[in-house]
Amino acid sequence: MLLRRLCCSLSSTPRSFFVAPSNLARRHNSFATMATAMPSANGHASPPPSLGDVRGNMKLLQSFALPYAPDMKVQKWKSTRTGLTLVWADFPSPLLNAYMTVPTEIFTDSGVPHTLEHLIFLGSHDYPYKGILDSLANRSFASGTNAWTANDHTAYTITTASSDGFLRMLPVYADHLFRPTITDAGFTTEVYHVDGKGHDAGVVFSEMQGRENTSGDLMELRMQRSLYPEGNAYRSETGGLMDKLRVLTAQEIRDYHAKYYAPHNTALVVTGPLPLAQLIDTVNSIDDGLIAAGKAPGPSGPPGWLRPFLETPSATPPIIDGSLRGDLPSLTPIDADVASSRDPLRRQTTVEFPEEDESMGEVYISWVGPKLGSWIEEEAISVLSTYLTDSAVSPVQRAFVERDDPLCTDVYLSQESKAGSGIISALFTSVPTAKLAQLDGELLALLKKIAKEGIDMQRMQLCIRRDRVKLMNHLETKTSESFADVLIQDHLYGDAGGKDLFTCMDDVARYEVLAGWTSAQWAQLIDRWLVCNARMVVLGKPSKTLQKSLRKDTKALEKKRKAALGEEGLKELTEKLDKARAENDRPIPDEILSGFRIPSEESIQWIQSGRRLIGKAPVSDGVVEGQVSKIADDGQTTPLDKVLDDHLAPELDGPQLPFPIHFTQVPSAFLTVSLVFPTTHLAPHLRPLLQLYLSTLFSLPLQKLDGSAATLSYEDVVRGLDDDTVEYDAGLGVGGGFAENVCIEVKVERNRYAEAVGWLRDLLWGSQFSVDRLRVSVAKTTQSLPELKRDGRGISWSLLRSLTHDEGKSSNVSTSILRMLEFMPALSERLGSKPEEVVGELEEVRRSVFRLDNMVAAVGGDVVGSGGKNALQPWRQLAESVAAKQQANNSASSASPVHLPWSRSVLTPLGRQPSKTGLLASLPTVESSYAVFTSRGPNSYAHPDHPALVVTVAMLNALESVLWRHVRGAGLAYGASLRIDVEAGQLHFSLYRAPDSARAFQEAKRVVQAVAGVREWAGSKGKDGKPSGLPAPSFTQTDLDSAKSLLHYNVAEGVSTVSLCAGEVFSDELLRCAPAGRGRGRALLSKVASVTLEDVQRVLREWVCPVFEAQTSIAAIVGSEARMGEIEKCLREQEGYEVRRKTLPIVKGAKDAKGEESSGDESMSGSESGSESESGSESESEESEVDGKKGKL
């Protein structure tokens, strides 16, 4: 089912790679053969294959087009010799994706699947060098490689912007998958070791240390322990528990690999456009290599092989029984306070998680769902979840969230496929601790009421139609992910011959069946699966005591270990680690990298667009003196430009509009209509109210401005939006940046263009600020603040913005989490005592910001196919009705060009000239630290140094770069990266999950200065302060070439869907004002091609080195109180920063279990969305990345 995403319990990050000695000689049929030359296509087109056709080893089992999207085709092939499966989804796209998928069943908590996932990346038989896989990927128009480990499978991924590079990378990747080295040295550094200070360490261990005691992981594991008895693999923690990782051995991992990583258990899932002949030739080469290497026991596996999960004890579905019969010895016991009042249909258990703020917990409920292959029931439950939870008028949201005393701030209802029977789950977040145990009872009572009173069939039909439209939207915006999810699921649980595949993917046929269901049938579904079906309830309860005891236990363990080892033992551990590092970090021979040919840019399939601006062009801070606007004819005209011009021409002689409209024509079934409003003229005291304004925008009552004067309740508004739109969103920022501008977006089917414009008109100028609705919104936001305050990374960026941005001028800072911690509780009190005052201020916000002469409109999608020749008429009607309401003169002749500000216009003196200041804050809920260091950077895309700096940052941020090896590889931080912020004229260096941010910063400084040639290299130091043995860092021509290749992928990814493409055209021309206008990315690639190593050295010295000097930079750091003193001392005494502390305010109004007040994106911009919204391309926002670059997440 294309809409139902697979739930992954663990997303892991293989990051350190190692080397093991091996013979590099090329052999006949080896995996290396395909890495040096892509197979050539036949001189003529091959005939389409028929079912049963055999090409080499591969036999075609299934081939079909989606009946509702005939240009999207699926083929399933299987090797007749090894059983290797190939599943290919063929559709137009600039990007190609591979997901090498292995069902990984484990019956212990050793974490073998997860640790093996990491070790796969540490070198292979033909490529025994740490980092070579990512290094070669970077030369293939890709951004490294990726992987994840879930509860039932491990998937290894790569995405490229070139079919040439893609096909040459597959055999290299396959060699790592099937023939990894898995050495003891790799295990030591990547999985687990004890360092010279007696501390637990290792990449996997550190990752799980940061996850094991989070509320999400603790509740998920408790649920697994409560559903599945011993002997069932679904019970296991596939990531590995810390006490199990401490005793795991490399040999256990080798044995597991030998059993499960075999071709008969593996599927190569490929998505995107490829020549079939070349794809099959490539897979045949991999298959032949497996046979030659003795890695293929046969198409059905070795004697006694059991298909994971389906043919093992894991296929037994769980039984939830709250009576004494359900108390199996290996299941988690139920809570003592419910043991005396047994309910056969309910089991409850509580798990505590460490947290200083005890006011809010979580509730996790699971039911045993339909058996595999119950397609109609599974689809019905998916639609039911939409009906129950997807909007402010859905029954569960109304009863639990949309109230002034919320029982939770959000609820998610989902289902997950498993062998035997699936699992239906509900998660309630930010639940008042005192109400945890009662919440599922209230849910049950509500569900009974719904089933008894009957289903609102009009709304149910709307939900079915909406899910169908969302499916088509996903196929445009998340094409590869949508296909990969269902193809991976089919490999895990479907028929081996693929006979289930077509049925599984035909969602539309099931929607047609469900459209004929009666209210009674839906009520029966609720009764069967949610009311009369036994439920398992896990309560997540915050605990101050647990937090303190965990820290105490860790210190006691380390103290005991140090005493047992003694100085000599610790010294031996250091020597062992140094030896492992030396073995792992042998350099990759340059001839291997340089011999891997970089593809041609012509191999990228760019999406074509047409564009036209109507009205006066806005003025942006991005325009530099002497720059010519590229909105007019710039020599880059495309056929779609003429198509769009011809479509608009008949309307151009009509009345002029008081605002500009930018049209972008791309091939799409949808249109996105956006309104952008700068917040420049908003008074300082009103800026924080933008959060409330935008968060309530789509759920307020309104009066229509279409001449009817009809009034709609907030319920009518939400229902109407659900009926007419695909998704809607409101927030600060456009395309991942420009956060001093409000952007309101509505996405619709292309034949509903006029409705989209009408909704924007009525929402912005016809809405009524109902005090009741305002109180609900403020209550939800206030209740979520304790959870938001746990985000160390978001707080670090918020601290930085408080230094660099003027709060009186910046809407971004005025709506940040730091500001909301104080503002929201006070606003709640004002709504109680002086509601009319708040309403008056919101009206003032509307008058100041949401004016026609302060607006830029954008329409992106199939404008020409939207129906009729009336692209401008809806806007003329909007202008007329709004002008009449505001009784204002909005004539085009009197309107000045709209000014779209960049963040540099709201900077403080310190933001414009960073120097010496450091701001630190401690959070009790984080174990690591998060840091941002900022200096000046280029302030225009036309800056002559911009291309060279882009290349330099790409070289430093690349996986396995010098920065990566010396900071991440040494265990000093989980992520370290630089980011160019052209909009602010700044350069940022950020650290993610660093045990000690000051030490990580110092090591990064030493590396960058050594590469720049401004500092002599004196050796690198690791997490324990000992020399790491890494060689002096430097840049080579190969590094430069690889970075340029990587940038091709980054640019292509930013325009990889029609929605992204349309958004980039608008942003490039009107906001970024890039010299090339549309096509900024490709123009950048042209300039990047001429960047030399000398250019790189120069920008390193002039732009990058200053971010590591206190005199020319500032710092913002968040971390645990235990480490903050050391960090402050280092920054002050060794680096020269003038450091001060900031204490985060207490969240007033949040109640703990006793009813007492307790403490509790860098910007809470008030975004409200009606659906999953597509992330922006080439994001300028720090919140869009986890560690500042693409990586294995």
TrEMBL record:
Stretches with biased composition (Low complexity): 1161-1174
Pfam families to which the protein is assigned, alphabetical: Peptidase_M16, Peptidase_M16_C
Region (Disordered): 1148-1193
Residue ranges of domain Peptidase M16 N-terminal in the record: 110-194
Limits of the Peptidase M16 C-terminal domain: 248-461, 841-1009
InterPro entries for the chain: Metalloenz_LuxS/M16, Pept_M16_N, Peptidase_M16_C
Acidic residues: compositionally biased ranges: 1175-1185
GO molecular function (one): metal ion binding
PANTHER family from the UniProt entry: METALLOPROTEASE, PUTATIVE (AFU_ORTHOLOGUE AFUA_4G07610)-RELATED (PTHR43016:SF16), PRESEQUENCE PROTEASE (PTHR43016)
Full protein name: Mitochondrial presequence protease
Taxon lineage: Eukaryota, Fungi, Dikarya, Basidiomycota, Ustilaginomycotina
